[in-house]
Amino acid sequence: MADKKAELWEALKQGVIDYDEDAVKEAAQAVVDEGLDAYDAVFDGLVEGMNEVGRLYEEQEYFVPEMLMCADALYAGLDILKPHIIQKEGGIKGAVVMGVVQGDVHDIGKNIVKMMFDVAGFDVHDLGRDVPMDKFVEEQLKTDSELVLLSAMMTTTMVGMKDIIAKIKEKNPNCKIMIGGAPVSEDLADKWGADGFAKDANNALKDALNMVKALKDLQQ
User: How far apart are alpha carbons 119 and 116 in whole angstroms?
Assistant: First the structure.
């Protein structure tokens, strides 16, 4: 069974990298038919594939059209696996507001992060792309979300993050803010007062879970 599992995880990963929707659907269906863990299939198969796609994009071996086709393949697998996912460690983990900052319409990365937060059991408020600064602040106050995730793919748009962080922190000092996207770095996150920086979707989820846990521990 371990061999079969490894084989299917690899098929999911490779299917995403090769933007082969049929191969991904076939492997995802096999996961369900074999009664394997759909959650692990998403994270160790589909998401691993997308992480590799991100690396290929950074190295300019893949461009936006390939990224979009890879994302389509990932979603094709997710459609099959998601109904079979058993939430880990029970219940809603916390609420998160996320979006791509004003002036920026690159939302592939944000969409992958959203999918992972959905799968992990967060209550996700997705504002989409090209989101005005005040909208992040309003949505955080309205939903009382523990987390806000800001994404930018262009150096010209990422500078707006600094003001958003300041405004949210002013209204709600306890809210944790994470920033991500190609031009963003850990240094900038520190400088602008963000609580975290995510270089990819896996990191975003791990950090978010830690932040929410820390907040809940404080409130007890």
Answer: 5
